[in-house]
């Protein structure tokens, strides 16, 4: 089986009926890159940049960040690399920022909310990203967007830093895509208007499930509510994909769900374009998708989404896979 999977390493990902999708990897540090290359990822769908800021006493400099982003882009040799701007807050803290304690950190000053509040650190990261953009196929992604104003503000800061760099004569790519994570139900429900302002969406199901089900993703007492294939979650995902399609934008997924063999057939059927997962899941996912017809699963997905519970949807999917 391992050898069978190895044969798929350098192949693009096609469903049985010739429908093409992209399998990308999630990384959290530069050390993860070798595994990504060894497992035949078609790109990086999520580079979590938090590690750059954690386990130290001060913010990373622009130069330090630039070197790391450039290194990742060069190693990926012009394959797409989605780098997410800082997603701190929630469960991840930076003691040296001395942020006020919050009673509900997951509903507090997190990710892009913090970055828009602390523009100094956000601008530094944006400059580092823009400087790295001429070394590969960079795509910039903002996490935890809830309302269009946050996206507009983030894009404005990006534009301002780009203009400054150009003024300084620094080479900056002209075709860098800008997208957002869909992790907040409000963003999923308003995906039609958000789609007009981005180049792509990436659905962050780890958070989207937690916020949709009102169940802390790390609290074992309510883990029964953490249901990736709950019809409410799947309907939000369908809504996001349809909204993006209408605007001609692509949609990826970078939460754990993207590598889940029970979810993959449904996501393929719903028309997800890019699946980003841990490197070790890529070859199994490629082998699975090869056996599935997009056309057929489009119909099954519609049937599944009309069902009332995750249990019935999972039973239906398992039944159809065996057929
Ligand atoms: C997600 O929420 O699905 C996601 C990929 O982001 P993180 O797990 O880093 O919150
Ligand atoms: Mg998240």
Automatic annotation (TrEMBL):
Keywords: Coiled coil, Cytoplasm, Kinase, Magnesium, Metal-binding, Phosphotransferase system, Pyruvate, Sugar transport, Transferase, Transport
This protein's record includes keyword Metal-binding: yes
Domain PEP-utilising enzyme C-terminal, chain residue ranges per copy: 3-292
A Gene Ontology BP annotation from the UniProt entry: phosphoenolpyruvate-dependent sugar phosphotransferase system
MF terms (GO), sorted A to Z: kinase activity; metal ion binding; phosphoenolpyruvate-protein phosphotransferase activity
Location in or out of the cell: Cytoplasm
Cofactors demanded by this protein: Mg(2+)
Protein's name according to its UniProt entry: Phosphoenolpyruvate-protein phosphotransferase
Enzyme class, first EC level, given as a word: transferase
Catalytic residue positions: 254
Similarity remark: Belongs to the PEP-utilizing enzyme family.
Tagged with keyword Cytoplasm: yes
Entry EC number(s): 2.7.3.9
Span covered, complete protein: 250 to 572 of 572
GO cellular component terms, semicolon-separated: cytoplasm
Catalytic reaction(s) noted: L-histidyl-[protein] + phosphoenolpyruvate = N(pros)-phospho-L-histidyl-[protein] + pyruvate
Protein purpose: General (non sugar-specific) component of the phosphoenolpyruvate-dependent sugar phosphotransferase system (sugar PTS). This major carbohydrate active-transport system catalyzes the phosphorylation of incoming sugar substrates concomitantly with their translocation across the cell membrane. Enzyme I transfers the phosphoryl group from phosphoenolpyruvate (PEP) to the phosphoryl carrier protein (HPr).
Binding, phosphoenolpyruvate: 48, 84, 206-207, 217
Residues reported to bind Mg(2+): 183, 207
